């Protein structure tokens, strides 16, 4: 088969089934994780004959029990969401490998299943690989542009990335006080995580702030100490003034 025909069938494969080979490369390169051998054997190298790959995959998908696969995928997606919320003091990499492997196997059988792209992107978000996380979101959006969680995660990633850039670009202190520019950025950050707009960060809001900035959920003792050390309301929640004092 000519090079031109190979490219045509590769493009058709990516259009119909997504680019799982590129997805595999992005995820493994970004995280440094070694996924199981059966996955690496299947996705590490692109097919030499894209036409054969396409026709074989099309037959496999057409012959599959779609409703049964969807039900299984929905269960794995919900389980993955629960697993990712269990990380507290550090990231459990063996669990990441387990979950990532399941997501890739699901995408091999259900290329349009957006939840898998979301979970894989969220994993890269956890380990602070923001650009690659956005790349995977874009791949998922190509397969399913109406999946709402993509936009929510993208907004969170972009906010953290842009806020970090803003902090780097402005002077932090002027005459031993926070500069107006840095104060504005910090207030934007605070109000983003102060979801109920009560000028305090509840334990859940503060947990989300810490997790969003360094990829780890803090222990409960840390949450409590933040309010005690820097300023809390009557419930022990970190106040806006305390947040700025801390920073």
From TrEMBL:
Alphabetic keyword roster: Calcium
Cross-referenced InterPro entries: EF-hand-dom_pair (IPR011992), EF_Hand_1_Ca_BS (IPR018247), EF_hand_dom (IPR002048)
Domain of life: Eukaryota
GO molecular function, one term: calcium ion binding
PROSITE patterns to which the protein is assigned, alphabetical: EF_HAND_1, EF_HAND_2
UniProt domain EF-hand: residue ranges: 181-216
Name of the protein described by the UniProt record: EF-hand domain-containing protein
Organism lineage: Eukaryota, Fungi, Fungi incertae sedis, Mucoromycota, Mucoromycotina
């Amino acid at each position: 088969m000519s090079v031109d025909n190979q490219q045509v069938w590769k493009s058709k494969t990516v259009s119909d089934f997504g680019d799982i080979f590129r997805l595999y490369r992005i995820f493994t390169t970004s995280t440094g994780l070694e996924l199981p051998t059966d996955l690496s054997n299947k996705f590490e190298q692109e097919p030499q004959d894209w036409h054969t790959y396409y026709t074989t995959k099309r037959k496999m998908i057409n012959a599959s029990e779609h409703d049964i696969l969807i039900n299984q995928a929905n269960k794995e997606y919900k389980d993955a969401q629960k697993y990712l919320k269990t990380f507290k003091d550090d990231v459990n990499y063996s669990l990441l490998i387990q979950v990532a492997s399941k997501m890739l196997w699901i995408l091999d059988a259900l290329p349009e299943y957006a939840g898998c792209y979301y979970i894989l992107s969220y994993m890269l978000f956890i380990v602070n690989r923001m650009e690659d996380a956005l790349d995977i979101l874009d791949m998922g959006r190509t397969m399913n542009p109406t999946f709402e969680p993509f936009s929510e995660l993208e907004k969170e990633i972009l906010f953290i990335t842009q806020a970090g850039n803003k902090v780097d670009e402005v002077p932090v202190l002027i005459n031993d006080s926070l500069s107006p520019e840095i104060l504005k950025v910090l207030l934007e950050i605070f109000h983003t995580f102060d979801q109920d707009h009560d000028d305090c960060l509840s334990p859940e809001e503060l947990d989300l702030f810490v997790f969003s900035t360094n990829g780890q959920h803090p222990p409960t003792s840390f949450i409590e100490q933040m309010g005690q050390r820097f300023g809390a309301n009557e419930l022990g929640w970190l106040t806006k003034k305390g947040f700025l004092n801390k920073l």
